[in-house]
């Protein structure tokens, strides 16, 4: 049996058999659960302190606003310093910011500033972790399945984390929950420090993080192939968030109530998890690559069902079906890591992550703005139509760049 055949037959089990990956995976789960719980606790804390819905919403949104800034100006850290050091420092920064927010009497301005600090570290942490998977698992199929597992646990932990965070806050005050968040990040830092290998930095030269970040972004975006693959990473999520961001008004429009809101919020992650698991378990590397462009081209078409203002059951089916199409990312990952030079891998992964988070935030905002002027079901259907045309154009770019 060749080295290529082994990971195909073993699938996700071969990835989880790598001890160092299990450490990275466990650290990611700890920090992710801490992050989600901290988002809820901080939002509740700010509201209790100020009584202001606006400031409470800002406490939540502050986790998204600095993402592009951190991904653009700090991405160089992922390549200019040893990866283990970057991962540990980012987790420690997040732990420290959570601990500060838990201090009794901390002003609201400090609470928001600490939320922004952890958000600045977020894209560097995610990008460095993704680049590290290439070192731990190699650049082949194991890397693709490793990234897939990270995405699966991210989707699942977000659902579980919001539920667990809500339950936790019924038993303990928000500041105590924030201490649990700090403990999660600290435990992740310790796992990474003592459970992963020390590897040298990918790039050499002076440790000018901002300069390296900007020059790396220019190099990546100047490459036709990489630019096309980045667009294929960013644009589908921009449209995919529409039904989630409008779940509350749509549930109200069809009389589904709060239960409908919760189900609509869960449908996309559930479909995404199922699609990733099926593509990673049933298909081999070539099959996933052949699936990439067709799946990306049609994944937004289920939103067209919203033209009929479907019932809760049919709308859940449409959203979950669109989530299944997100399995296109497995083949995309393989193409992306093959196209990016080794010395730029950390910056490339950081830029990709920051861009995805940013466009999702923009997509939510634009969907909400559009729903101020048009019925929600028309907004979702329009997102499906326009998104299909846009993503189809990007698919042609990717084909042309091959």
Range of strand content: under 5%
Kindly, what is the distance between the CA atoms of the first and last residues, rounded to a whole number of angstroms? 30 Å
**Largest sheet at a glance?**
none
Percent in helix: over 70%
- CATH hierarchy, class of the largest domain: Mainly Alpha
Q: Quick one: CATH superfamily of the largest domain?
A: MFS general substrate transporter like domains
Q: What assembly state would you assign to the polypeptide chains in this entry?
A: single chain
The assigned structural class equals mainly alpha
Architecture (CATH level 2) name of the largest domain: Up-down Bundle
CATH topology of the largest domain: Growth Hormone, Chain: A
Low-confidence stretches: 1-9
Please characterize this protein's 3D structure.
By secondary structure, the chain is mostly helical. The chain folds into two domains: 9-194, MFS general substrate transporter like domains (Growth Hormone, Chain: A); 223-402, Growth Hormone, Chain: A (Up-down Bundle). Helix content is 81%, strand content 0%. It contains 20 helices and no strands. α3 (19-50) packs antiparallel against α4 and α3 (19-50) packs parallel to α9 (141-171). The radius of gyration is 21 Å and the shape is globular. Residues 1-9 have low confidence and may be disordered.
């Amino acid at each position: 049996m060749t080295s290529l055949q082994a990971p195909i037959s073993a699938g996700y089990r071969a990835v989880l058999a790598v001890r160092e990956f299990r450490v990275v995976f466990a650290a990611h789960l700890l920090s992710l659960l801490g992050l989600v719980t901290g988002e809820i606790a901080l939002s509740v804390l700010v509201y209790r302190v100020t009584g202001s819905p606006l400031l409470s919403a800002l406490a939540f949104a502050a986790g998204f606003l600095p993402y592009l800034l951190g991904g653009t100006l700090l991405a160089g850290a992922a390549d200019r310093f040893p990866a283990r050091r970057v991962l540990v420092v980012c987790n420690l920064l997040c732990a420290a910011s959570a601990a500060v927010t838990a201090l009794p009497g901390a002003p609201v301005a400090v609470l928001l500033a600490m939320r922004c600090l952890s958000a600045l570290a977020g894209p560097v942490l995610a990008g460095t972790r993704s680049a590290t998977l290439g070192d731990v698992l190699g650049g082949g199929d194991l890397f693709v399945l490793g990234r897939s597992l990270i995405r699966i646990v991210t989707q699942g932990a977000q659902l579980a984390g919001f539920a667990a965070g809500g339950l936790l806050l019924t038993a303990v005050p928000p500041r105590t929950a924030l201490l649990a968040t700090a403990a999660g990040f600290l435990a992740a830092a310790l796992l990474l420090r003592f459970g992963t290998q020390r590897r040298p930095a990918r790039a050499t030269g002076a440790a000018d993080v901002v300069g390296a970040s900007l020059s790396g972004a220019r190099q990546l975006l100047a490459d036709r192939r990489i630019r096309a693959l980045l667009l294929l990473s960013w644009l589908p999520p921009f449209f995919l968030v529409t039904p989630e961001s409008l779940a509350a008004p749509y549930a109200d429009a069809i009389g589904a109530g709060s239960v409908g809101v919760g189900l609509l919020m869960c449908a996309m992650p559930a479909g995404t998890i199922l699609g990733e698991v099926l593509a990673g378990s049933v298909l081999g590397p070539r099959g996933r690559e052949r699936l990439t462009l067709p799946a990306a081209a049609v994944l937004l078409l289920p939103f067209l069902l919203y033209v009929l203002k479907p019932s809760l059951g049919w709308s859940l089916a449409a959203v979950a079906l669109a989530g299944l199409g997100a399995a296109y990312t497995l083949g995309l990952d393989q193409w992306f890591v093959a196209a990016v030079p080794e010395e730029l891998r950390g910056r490339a992964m950081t830029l990709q992550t920051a861009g995805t988070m940013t466009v999702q935030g923009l997509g939510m905002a634009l969907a909400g703005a559009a729903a101020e002027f048009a019925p929600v079901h028309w907004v979702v259907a329009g997102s499906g139509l326009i998104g299909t045309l846009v993503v189809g154009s990007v698919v042609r770019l990717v084909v042309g760049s091959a």
